[in-house]
Amino acid sequence: MAQPEFDPASVIGQHYEKGMLPYGGRVNCKGVITYAVSRDQFDEKMRRLGSI
Fold first, then answer.
1. Chain CA centroid to CA 36, Å
2. What is the value of pTM for the model shown?
3. Contact assessment for residue 21 and residue 37, using Cβ atoms and an 8 Å cutoff
4. What is the distance between the alpha carbons of residues 52 and 50, in angstroms, rounded to a whole number?
5. Which of 7, 9, 16, 32 is the most exposed place for a label (fewest CB within 10 A)?
6. Could you tell me which residues come within 8 angstroms of residue 39 by beta carbon, excluding any fewer than 6 positions away?
7. How far is the CA of 33 from the CAs of 4, 12, 27, 47, 52, in angstroms?
8. What's the distance, CA 39 to chain centroid?
9. How far is CA 46 from CA 4, 10, 12, 20, 22, in A?
10. How many whole angstroms separate alpha carbon 16 and alpha carbon 32?
11. CA neighbours within 13 Å on the CB side: how many for 2?
12. Which pLDDT value is given to residue 14?
C-alpha cells in the first residue's frame, strides 16, 4: 500500500515527537513544527546540490 503524499502545510503547528520530519523542516524547543519541507522542495534541493 502506498503512503499518502506528505503535505507540509497540514503539519505546521502540530506537536511532533517521531524523530525526523520526512523531508526536513524545523521543530521549536516545545516540539511544535514551525517549518516543513515537501517532497518536491526536497527533490529540487538535492538536484541543485548534485549539480555542484
1. 4
2. 0.72
3. yes
4. 6
5. 9
6. 5, 6, 22, 23
7. 19, 5, 4, 25, 30
8. 8
9. 22, 23, 23, 17, 14
10. 6
11. 3
12. 93
DSSP conformation letters of the chain? -PPPPP-HHHHTTSB--SSS-SS-EEE-TTSBEEEE--HHHHHHHHHHHHT-
User: Tell me: the pLDDT tens digits for 7-33?
Assistant: 888 889 999 888 888 899 999 999 999
The answer to whether residues 48 and 32 touch, using CB atoms and an 8 Å cutoff, is no
Please give the backbone phi and psi of residue 8, each rounded to the nearest 5 degrees, phi first.
-60, -35
* 2 grid coordinates: 502506498
Cell 520526512 sits on residue: 22
